[in-house]
């Protein structure tokens, strides 16, 4: 059986350990908990999360600083059976990412039996021979120890069926803060030796404008159902300090567009008397202000970008 890791005691400090730095990506089906885990490891929200599948739409780097190592996490979109051009592009991004990292963390939720989607991903991972693969069982707070044990065995078995051993099989709970540090401890030795790649204190390399757009999208995703979550895209057009403000009372003007795919979706996003859009504005503004550390005036507009998920021109315009 592959190594299954549960923390029992602190690791022995080793004096002459060389500094390590490198990349670990998290892959898995949509909704497996990759972005939540990335945030928990970094200790700050660098990636948005939601209970809707396919929340993440680009790779997000989160940086974990340790005295002996710099671990750069690359959160990826959930790998799925694509139904749109966007879906195909997102899957391509995942495959390009796992080909270039030092270690792959395959995330599998503890509360869902292994399915065809997981097998499909594991099969592809099996063909990447040179890169160590860690199986990460996420959301362990949602199951009892018996169900967890069964999941660990099933994952070990899956590796064997495909002809490889997981470097580790680690159960974690990002929400329950269980074994998250242990996961970092296990990833670090799999990184190459080398100096830090990012300045001390940098937690991500996401541009501010992208993070702002993502926070708006996260707020807009809440409470929408069916196809609508997939149809929403957000673009920040402009972020400018308001002129004629006293130095001690700055205000940042942010103009953003919330795109949807069909005119019929407009009413749902805006809500009765504009209430939904207003709530999205209030909620995301609070998060943006916390992120940027300045008061913000947020101007949100809803626009139709017809069938943008399937239209190469629209996709390019929206940054895919
Ligand atoms: N109970 C529990 N829920 C979790 C945990 N980790 C993630 N979740 C929930 O699972 C849902 C999906 O989490 P995400 O982190 O957005 O999943 P993802 O794998 O990044 O999803 P995509 O970006 O769509 O591929 C959210 O509702 C999270 O709150 C966990 O450790 N415990
Ligand atoms: Mg995600």
TrEMBL record:
Residues 75-78 are annotated as: G3. CDD domains: Era (cd04163), KH-II_Era (cd22534). Keywords: Cell membrane, Cytoplasm, GTP-binding, Membrane, Nucleotide-binding, Ribosome biogenesis, RNA-binding, rRNA-binding. InterPro entries: G_ERA_dom, GTP-bd, GTPase_Era-like, KH_dom-like_a/b, KH_dom_type_2, KH_sf_prok-type, P-loop_NTPase, Small_GTP-bd. Its main location: cytoplasm. Residues 28-35 are annotated as: G1. The keyword Disulfide bond does not apply. Residues 138-141 are annotated as: G4. PROSITE patterns: G_ERA (PS51713), KH_TYPE_2 (PS50823). It is a peripheral membrane protein. Signal peptide: none annotated. NCBIfam families: era (TIGR00436), PRK00089.1 (NF000908), small_GTP (TIGR00231). Monomer. This is GTPase Era. The gene is era.
């Amino acid at each position: 059986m592959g190594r299954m890791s549960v923390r029992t005691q602190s690791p022995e400090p080793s004096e002459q350990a060389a500094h390590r730095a490198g990349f670990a990506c998290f892959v898995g089906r949509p909704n497996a908990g990759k972005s939540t885990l990335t945030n928990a490891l970094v200790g700050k929200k660098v990636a948005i999360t939601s209970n809707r599948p396919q929340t993440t739409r680009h790779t997000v780097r989160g940086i974990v600083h340790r005295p002996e190592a710099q671990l750069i996490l690359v959160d990826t979109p959930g790998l799925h059976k694509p139904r749109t051009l966007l879906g195909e592009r997102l899957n391509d991004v995942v495959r390009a990412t796992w080909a270039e990292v030092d270690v792959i963390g395959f995330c599998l939720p503890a509360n869902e039996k292994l399915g065809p989607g997981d097998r499909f991903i594991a099969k592809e991972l099996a063909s990447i021979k040179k890169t160590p693969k860690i199986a990460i069982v996420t959301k362990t707070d949602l199951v009892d120890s018996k169900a967890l044990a069964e999941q660990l065995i099933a994952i070990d078995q899956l590796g064997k069926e495909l002809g490889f051993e997981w470097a580790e099989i680690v159960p974690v709970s990002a929400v329950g803060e269980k074994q998250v540090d242990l996961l970092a401890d296990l990833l670090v030795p799999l990184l190459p030796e080398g100096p830090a790649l990012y300045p001390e204190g940098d937690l991500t390399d996401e541009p501010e404008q992208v993070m702002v757009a993502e926070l708006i999208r996260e707020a807009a995703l809440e409470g929408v159902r069916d196809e609508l979550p997939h149809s929403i895209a957000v673009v920040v057009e402009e972020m400018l300090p308001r002129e004629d403000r006293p130095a001690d009372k700055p205000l940042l003007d942010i103009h953003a567009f919330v795109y949807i795919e069909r005119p019929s979706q407009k009413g749902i996003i805006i809500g009765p008397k504009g209430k939904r859009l207003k709530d999205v504005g209030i909620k995301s503004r609070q998060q943006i202000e916390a992120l940027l550390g300045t008061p913000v005036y947020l101007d949100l507009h809803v626009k139709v970008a017809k069938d943008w998920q399937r239209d190469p021109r629209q996709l390019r315009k929206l940054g895919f």
